[in-house]
Known about the structure:
The protein is 32% helix and 19% strand. The protein is built from 6 helices and 7 strands; from the N terminus they run H-E-H-E-H-E-E-E-E-H-E-H-H. It is flat. It has a 3-stranded antiparallel β-sheet, with helices on one face. The protein has a two-stranded parallel ribbon with strand order 1-2. A two-stranded antiparallel sheet has the order 4-5. It is of the alpha+beta class. Helix 2 (36-44) packs across helix 6 (157-163). It has helices spanning 2-21, 36-44, 67-74, 115-123, 140-144, 157-163, and strands at residues 29-30, 51-52, 78-84, 91-97, 100-106, 109-114, 131-133.
Amino acid sequence: MEHNNDILNCLQILSTEANELYLRKDVPVMKPPISALDFHRRWVSPNLPVLFKGAVTHWSAIGKWDVPYFRKTLSDKKVTVAVTPNGYADAIATRSEQNADIEYFVMPEEREMNMSEFLDALEDRHKYPGVFYVQRQNSNLTEDFPELMREVEPEISWASEAFGCPPEAVNLWVGDERSHYIK
């Protein structure tokens, strides 16, 4: 038991130092254009999160991908859907137990359903309890939705140049305002 306390103390110190030294409470929002060199210097090298808004406005998917379009294009397609009671999947959760907060990792329930049923769940919350969203992180856009790839580019050139390679995974997340990616 003492060994576990030593590990927990080390992890707590690491967490505190990371928060004090480089982790931020807010993720900055930037607008491109940005050079690969600037992207690498400011964000990749120091390993800092950033959100680029408007980086893919030229893709034909923009303004096209919506519920009616997915119903028309993917209605009968089988999709893997995460279902959670509160919208948090692949996240850290906390519960109180004997005067201590215990953190644990939460995995979503995964259901296979037709895209049309998934879209029904997004539109009719009373009929489908829980928070439903497509969120697999296995390059699901290229692997699970190849029919959509003609409407997006396979990479963002300045990002691929900064990393020195094309992306290893390209993901599509679909849900409503109740689905979260971080807690």
